[in-house]
Amino acid sequence: MQELECHAVASSVFRGRYTAHTDTPFVVFLIGMRINQFWRFWRWLPTVLAMRPMLLELYTHPEKGFLSAEFVFTLRGPILIQYWRSFDDLDNFARSRSDPHLPAWTKFNRTAARDGSAGVFHETYVVQPGRFEAVYVNMPRFGIARAFEHASASGRRETARGRLGGAAEPAVAS
């Protein structure tokens, strides 16, 4: 539990411009829930509460391939942005009978999915090295930069096009 709390606490802000860097492929996995019927909280609340044990398991066992996560809250429900070492690691966790995801998914399908009180979605992106770019200005380590290397956004990494391997002058001086 302490591990999860450590990741949930706001980190130090890094003044200036930073980017993320990795030479390995990785997976970005978005998973979210939309509450369709707020008054039926007994149907959708277990789905919300199921995420904590999953994250505890993943942060406690990095060998499963989970790298990091970020929460986003919308008016209709939570979204979790996850970073994984590979699709196989993500799929193995989702299908494992010994991990907390499969029981939670089974329960959701027997409750909130049946009556429409909540919906869920996920999107999976397999990202190759050099085929992503990110910039963080006056931010704590976040997103891909928390999952991988947090590097200065200067020189060839100063612009989005430069971070993607091209050449471009900054549109605005940093």
Radius of gyration: 18 Å
Instruction: State the domain count.
Output: 2
Mean pLDDT value: 89
Quantity of strands, as a count: 7
Count of runs of 4 or more consecutive helical residues: 8
Question: Can you give the helix content as a percent range?
Answer: 25-40%
CA-CA gap between termini: 40 Å
Shape: elongated
Q: How would you characterize the largest beta sheet?
A: 4 strands, antiparallel
Low-pLDDT parts are: 1-9
**In the CATH hierarchy, what is the architecture of the largest domain at level 2?**
2-Layer Sandwich
Q: What structural category characterises the helix and strand content?
A: alpha+beta
What is the C-level CATH assignment of the largest domain? Alpha Beta
Helix/strand order: HEEHHEEHHHEEHEH
In what range is the share of β-strand residues? 25-35%
State the strand order across the main sheet: 3-4-2-5
- The CATH topology of the largest domain turns out to be Alpha-Beta Plaits
Key features?
174 residues; 8 helices; elongated; alpha+beta
Give a brief rundown of this model.
This protein has helices at residues 2-8, 41-49, 51-60, 87-95, 101-110, 112-115, 143-147, 160-163; strands at residues 14-21, 26-35, 66-74, 77-84, 118-127, 136-139, 149-152. It has 174 residues and is of the alpha+beta class.
Describe what you observe in this structure.
Helices cover 33% and strands 30% of the residues. Strand 3 and strand 4 (77-84) form a beta hairpin. The chain has 8 helices and 7 strands. The protein has 2 domains: 2-23 and 128-163, no CATH class; 26-127, Alpha-Beta Plaits. The chain has a 4-stranded antiparallel β-sheet with strand order 3-4-2-5.
